[in-house]
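[SOLVED] Need 3D model of a two-part complex

Original post:
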Amino acid sequence: MYKRFFILAFLLIGFSQLNAQDIWFTRNGNISFHAGTSMEDIDGTNNDVASLINIKTGDIAFTVLVKSFHFTRSLMEEHFNENYMESTKFPKSTFSGKITDPGKVNFTKDGNYAVTIEGDLFIHGVTKKITAPATIKISGGKISADSKFKILMSDYNVAIPGVVADKISREAMIEVKCNYEKKN
Amino acid sequence: MNYQARLFFILLIFPVAAWSQDKPNLLDMLEKEEKPSTVYTTATFKTTRLINAHSIEQLAAGVLDVKISHRFGTLNKGIYELFGLDNASIRIGADYGITNWLMIGAGRSSFEKQYDGFLKLRLLRQSKGARKMPLSLSGFAGIYYNTLKWTDPSIINYNTSRLNYVFQLLAARKFSEGFSLQVSPTLVHYNLVPYTTDKNNMLSVGIGARQKLSKRVSINVEYYYQIPGYKLEGSENALSAGIDIETGGHVFQLIFTNSTGIAENQYITKTTGKWTDGDIHFGFNIARVFTLRKPKVKAQPHQ
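Solution:
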């Protein structure tokens, strides 16, 4: 009788341990954005994005340090932080959401899977629900996620002054590229 | 089942229930795992000059900053001289960032027909987070060579007499998004001074502050206090006030000052105007930044 209880206990403990295996992470994810016009190129790249993905539930989260976006022109980087993103006030941008159709992806089989991701995007003090198309690529036991979507600057209270109105686009095209590793 | 077995089984339910409900919020997990990083203060001032004097700001590597500085005549000259607009003292120069912590610059002023060159070295950066530093510190060294014709060509004149040197320690702190303060102890060396009673080494302390009025406009104030006994006979302390306007790649500085000269040795030690007498020059500085050498900014290679 005791044996049965112990077996049951170990089975239950065993099942809960599986949770840790489901979480994959990266600390060097890449997010870049393009907000230029024909008058000016505005491209920022961040290679220090931290992200977690739970392959069982499809939950996915990103945190992005705004000051880690780098530009080829240092003055543009200074203005980005000082005048537009106000990164001293809002040092981080985050995304918390999930793959709406995780069943589409077979995380054990190599291939490219087109999915939809939706969740809360927090930028410059404003949280907005967004939906974006993404591609989950499984290759040689590694998981990577790519996504490309547009956001409206005004949605996040990012003001563009009249002086530079024809140099900065009202929309930013955001590209996400992350390669994940299994969390230990 | 005996009592102990039942108790064991019941007790087991609690941790199991906790495990199955413990679907960790991924965002919270990320926040918890974050390593403390150092955040360096940026943009203590809008450009590398406060008004006349150097601020602790450095140019990034590969960046060229072209500077055109203009001081009109004094306001007390009256309507005939259009309140000084008919006169001008000009400096044309350029600064270049060799690395992110070392910059070099050169220029020429019409006042005393002087050529100047300088090096500015960043020593400390204000930061918070993992590494805390309460202020930014920079070192400045300038060399100045006037090319005026000798007043008395009949005596032996040495070219080295034309040289002045300026050494400064610039210490600044950004107290808030809007307010920054800088203190600059200064040594000015003249190879040749006007009177035998003048010292060759002149000591002063500069103090400057800026207050942002909006994201792109700020007001600045600058004062250089010359230590009594270590200044040129008859010189006044330089006091300046100005407004900075930043637009894209330009910073425009509109200035009121009692100094005619624009180079460090001139406005710190050779100011003769007095605010109370109306010896106030209106002037402006224009700075335009060009990126000559782009840093490598690559997207992460993707499988």
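Edit: The CA atoms of residues 123 and 171 of chain A lie 14 Å apart.
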